[in-house]
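Predict the 3D structure for this chain.
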Amino acid sequence: MYDTSLKRKWDWEAALEYAWKEGYEEGLAIAKGEIEDKEKNEIVHKLEDKDKIVHKLITIGLADEQVAKYAGVSKYFVKKVHASLKEK
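Done. Predicted structure below.
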């Protein structure tokens, strides 16, 4: 039982790390001007989904600092989403 939980945790962390690295590389490419407008629009659409990602991480029960780290957003953004969840 413990081994299964540990593997799930590692799989989850690996998936988040991969997603963060992918986003980081896209951000660098935008900053360098290597991405065209069509690709920029797709990336902006991905950024709009950040609140959904943060929402899911919060509902899992992670602390705000962990959510910010894994989602690649600021602690302020996490607190804002957390506050909107409490209102509902």
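The chain has a mean pLDDT of 76.
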